[in-house]
């Protein structure tokens, strides 16, 4: 509701311009915005998943269950469930209502990426290291893994003429990235040989394949509409492609040809890109650079570089764009901090008093005809009150886009969140004495009794509320 | 009963209260409190209000009413009205000119004056806070006392419910804000500390993750509730902050102060987006957003309540509600709804220093009902989120529940006679 009052020039800006904030809780390795954009999930080096509240820049929840670095995160459409994939070869589906683990799925190899189905939070697709990607159905306690193909689809002619060598090579291909299209009807998979496959989710057959590059495909991301994708590959080129509407039943995969729309690269420095992401509208493409401190932002209309976001003195890994706002978050590789870029809004002087007006140049004051007339004060009051005859509607609520609806899931606000300080974790070891928590410590208890669900942990936290709170007071005093 | 008329002393804007602070130019230039007759003159003719029932001013009243309806048909009607007109074209339901609230329950238990009463967002509970440093939670249906929350060291001036009705925040003259678990009646172990003086006003953000507080120390703080820390301090005012509120989607905060200013803030950036001030600069003691968030309602110590359109132009006062007395105390109130669902109208309910509760129609500014029963100043009034129930509390140490007679038809009646609940 603030939009009608905000400076229109500020609203017109759609690209962040300056470093405006930092979030910190442990060493973050991967981040993802929720669909509504009020929460940011951050996976840490020690396996803990932290949910940041973007409004308060504080920690809203901590999810414990992984023992190693978190590799990828994916939110369900209603923002209630979160899927995390970790280097401990596990994927966990979390229920943010109570912070419990809904499902834990183990794999035989490290996971590159795990993405939730956009409409069904009990289905996800995962790309696995040196193995075929799997579609995992977790609607029952025991997960059902179904293998998806990685070999590109060949036409009849190609198949007949295929040499044995080529067939063997095709069979050896593995997928390095798998993502759902926004409809969930298809999976986009990138292979280690530079092919992109469009796989039907229902039949698990490759419907279309195209070779984008000769190198490995690192990452694929679609826009919210699903009509545009951005592909990062190890040949140091970011490609954007325009997809046909895949949900259209008439789409002809046999005769479809995908053209690369733009190729973004740094020809001079031959930079390679850590991570890519679309802006909220898909108008911009942003990427973090390998061995470099900058975030590049390209505009897709002309394919030109429009901005380089600077600030942190370290390499940045995952970069994410807020789902609605000109707001970019990126993770520092060395410190594990999350850096935030957004628009600077200067205070407008005219807002501070009703008779202030911001003018470009001096304006001659023109006196009103009756400005200094002396009139009985009662008369003025009466006249003013009589003028107040309009109909006012204080009840009708205008529907606003991207607004919070009453029936939607909203994450409960935990007041007892243990160590809700988003800064370094400090523990009290005696009266007035503190030390920083050593990095490996969070992991120890987890290995001891891994079976403890984090739901139980929350209960314990409430039971010990008083004692903990005392620590909390001390901690604050120490700061 | 002299002491009963004295609530938390800090909520009283008495003359000596101003003398404490060094006299400032602005205060001298401000019209002295005895000029209020000028507003009486400006008041609409007394044909409105409860005196209408005897039919003395019927002709004039009817004229006024017709004029009101004609104009409505020429101006662009709101969607709900359009809908109402289309569905019920031939007999356009008469807009009620009166409300029929009756006192149903009197809840006693507080040992000193009550400064605020609030329905929980789910309508199940009533919370009341008092100068006796306690907060009481009552069942809104039966009036049964559920909890007495004790822990504050001085009078409690303000309370606010979390959107899930599970947590109650309270601000006290002991400079602390406390959070209470309503289910258990226990205080959250970590109070919110930071204000340097009495806390006057509190409001939860719609998501329940933030709290805004206004204090006598002239500051407005935005709190991160999870961390129990001040997130942002709004350099708001140069006089004690009387009221604060969040808009329904949480993107705006409104604050008001005795300096006569009402400021609208952007929650995300902490910047002032709008300042509303009335010519007379009367101290603003309480403020709230309309249910749809498009208007701001502000109580001032010149016995006026003003409805501001803060979006249009530089902000414009669209309605002035008069007929109550408010020169001294920080009185608050709420918006309410009357009429049947297809054509609902809004009213404003407020306490008054003449021991009544006054209900105005939002658009016509006519007094629709005066509720009499309190034996002291009525300081806090709130309306039930879904039903036609009003709760009020005041300096006479009682909480009173009022129900509309129309509402009784589809609500099962509880005790027909006013019941005295002693705690």
UniProtKB/TrEMBL annotation, chain A:
Residues 461-472 have a biased composition (Polar residues). WD repeats lie at residues 63-104. It is found in: Nucleus. Residues 149-175, 433-479 are annotated as: Disordered. Keywords: Nucleus, Repeat, WD repeat. Gene3D superfamilies: YVTN repeat-like/Quinoprotein amine dehydrogenase. This is WD40 repeat-like protein. The keyword Repeat applies.
UniProtKB/TrEMBL annotation, chain B:
The keyword Repeat applies. SMART domains: WD40 (SM00320). Residues 1-97 are annotated as: Disordered. GO terms for molecular function: histone binding. WD repeats lie at residues 107-148, 149-190, 192-233, 234-275, 277-309, 347-370, 371-402. Keywords: Repeat, WD repeat. Residues 107-403 form the WDR5-like beta-propeller domain. One of its GO terms (cellular component) is Set1C/COMPASS complex. Residues 62-74 have a biased composition (Basic and acidic residues). InterPro entries: Beta-prop_WDR5-like (IPR059122), WD40/YVTN_repeat-like_dom_sf (IPR015943), WD40_PAC1 (IPR020472), WD40_repeat_CS (IPR019775), WD40_repeat_dom_sf (IPR036322), WD40_rpt (IPR001680). Pfam families: Beta-prop_WDR5 (PF25175). Belongs to the WD repeat MDV1/CAF4 family. Involved in mitochondrial fission. Acts as an adapter protein required to form mitochondrial fission complexes. Formation of these complexes is required to promote constriction and fission of the mitochondrial compartment at a late step in mitochondrial division. This is Mitochondrial division protein 1.
């Amino acid at each position: 509701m603030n939009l009608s009052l905000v400076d229109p020039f500020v609203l017109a800006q759609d690209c962040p311009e300056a470093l405006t904030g930092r979030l910190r809780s442990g060493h973050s390795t991967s981040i993802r915005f929720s669909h509504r954009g009020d929460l940011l999930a951050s996976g840490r080096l020690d396996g803990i998943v932290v949910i940041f509240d973007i409004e308060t820049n504080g920690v809203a929840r901590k999810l414990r269950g992984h023992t190693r670095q978190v590799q990828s995160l994916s939110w369900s459409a209603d923002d209630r469930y979160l899927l995390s994939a970790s280097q401990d070869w596990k994927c966990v589906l979390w229920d943010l209502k109570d912070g419990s683990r809904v499902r834990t799925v183990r794999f035989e190899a490290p996971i590159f990426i795990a993405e939730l189905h956009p409409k069904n939070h009990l289905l996800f697709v995962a790309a696995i290291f040196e193995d075929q990607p799997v579609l995992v159905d977790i609607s029952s306690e025991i997960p059902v893994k179904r293998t998806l193909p990685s070999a590109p689809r060949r036409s009849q002619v190609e198949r007949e003429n295929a040499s044995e060598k080529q067939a063997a090579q095709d069979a050896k291909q593995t997928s390095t990235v798998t993502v759902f299209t926004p409809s969930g009807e298809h999976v986009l998979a990138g292979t280690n040989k530079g092919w992109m496959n469009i796989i039907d989710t229902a039949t698990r057959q490759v419907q279309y394949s195209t070779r984008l590059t000769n190198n490995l495909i690192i990452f694929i991301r679609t826009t919210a509409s699903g009509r545009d994708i951005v592909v990062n590959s190890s040949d140091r080129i970011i490609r954007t492609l325009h997809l046909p509407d895949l949900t259209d039943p008439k789409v002809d995969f046999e005769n479809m040809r995908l053209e690369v729309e733009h190729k973004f690269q740094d020809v001079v420095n031959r930079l390679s890109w850590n991570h890519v992401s679309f802006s909220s509208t898909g108008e911009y493409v942003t990427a973090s650079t390998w061995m470099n401190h900058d975030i590049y932002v390209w505009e897709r209309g002309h394919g030109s570089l429009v901005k380089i976001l600077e600030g942190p003195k370290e390499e940045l890994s995952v970069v994410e764009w807020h789902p609605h706002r000109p707001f970019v978050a990126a993770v520092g590789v060395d410190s594990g901090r999350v850096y935030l870029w957004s628009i600077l809004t200067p205070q407008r002087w005219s807002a501070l008093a009703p008779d202030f007006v911001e003018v470009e140049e001096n304006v001659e004051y023109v006196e009103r005809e009756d400005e200094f007339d002396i009139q009985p004060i009662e008369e003025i009051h009466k006249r003013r009150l009589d003028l107040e005859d309009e109909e006012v509607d204080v009840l009708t609520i205008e529907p606003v886009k991207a607004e919070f609806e009453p029936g939607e899931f909203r994450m409960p606000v935990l007041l007892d969140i243990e160590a809700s300080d988003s800064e370094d974790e400090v523990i009290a070891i005696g009266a007035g004495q503190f030390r920083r928590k050593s990095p490996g410590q969070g992991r120890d208890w987890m290995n001891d009794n891994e079976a403890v669900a984090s739901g139980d942990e929350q209960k314990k936290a409430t039971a010990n509320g008083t004692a903990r709170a005392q620590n909390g007071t001390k901690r604050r005093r120490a700061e | 009963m002299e002491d009963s008329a004295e609530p938390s002393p800090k909520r009283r804007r008495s003359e000596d209260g101003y003398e404490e602070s060094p006299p400032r130019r602005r205060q001298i230039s401000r019209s002295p409190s005895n000029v209020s007759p000028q507003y009486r003159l400006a008041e609409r003719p007394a044909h409105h209000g409860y005196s209408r029932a005897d039919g003395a001013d019927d002709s004039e009243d009817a004229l006024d009413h017709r004029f009101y309806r004609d104009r409505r048909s020429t101006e662009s009607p709101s969607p709900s009205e359009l809908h109402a007109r289309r569905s019920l074209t031939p007999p356009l339901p008469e807009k009620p000119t009166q409300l029929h609230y009756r006192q149903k329950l009197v809840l006693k238990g507080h040992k000193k004056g009550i400064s605020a009463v609030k329905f929980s967002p789910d309508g199940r509970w009533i919370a009341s806070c008092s100068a006796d440093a306690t907060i009481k939670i009552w069942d809104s249906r039966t009036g049964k006392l559920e909890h007495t929350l004790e822990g504050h060291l001085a009078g409690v001036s303000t309370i606010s419910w979390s959107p899930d009705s599970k947590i109650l925040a309270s601000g006290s003259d002991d400079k602390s804000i406390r959070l209470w678990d309503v289910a258990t009646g226990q205080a959250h172990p970590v109070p919110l500390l930071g204000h340097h003086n009495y806390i006057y006003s509190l409001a939860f953000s719609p998501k329940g993750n933030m709290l805004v507080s206004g204090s006598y120390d002239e500051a407005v703080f935005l709190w991160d509730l999870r961390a129990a820390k001040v997130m942002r301090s709004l350099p708001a005012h140069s006089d004690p902050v009387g009221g604060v509120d969040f808009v329904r989607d949480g993107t705006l905060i409104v604050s008001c102060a005795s300096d006569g200013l009402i400021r609208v803030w952007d929650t995300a950036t902490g910047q002032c987006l709008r300042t509303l001030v009335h010519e007379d600069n009367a101290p603003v003691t309480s403020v709230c957003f309309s249910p749809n968030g498009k208007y701001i309602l502000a109580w001032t110590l010149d016995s006026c309540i003003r409805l501001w359109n803060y979006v249009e132009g530089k902000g414009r006062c669209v309605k002035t509600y008069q007929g109550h007395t408010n020169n001294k105390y920080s009185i608050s109130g709420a918006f309410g709804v009357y009429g049947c669902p297809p054509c609902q109208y809004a009213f404003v309910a407020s306490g008054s220093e003449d021991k009544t509760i006054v209900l105005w129609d939002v658009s016509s500014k006519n007094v629709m009902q005066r509720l009499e029963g309190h034996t002291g100043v009525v300081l806090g009034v709130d309306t039930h989120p879904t039903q036609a129930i009003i709760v009020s509390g005041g300096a006479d140490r009682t909480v009173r529940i009022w129900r509309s007679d129309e509402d009784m038809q589809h609500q099962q009646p509880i005790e027909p006679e006013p019941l005295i609940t002693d705690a």
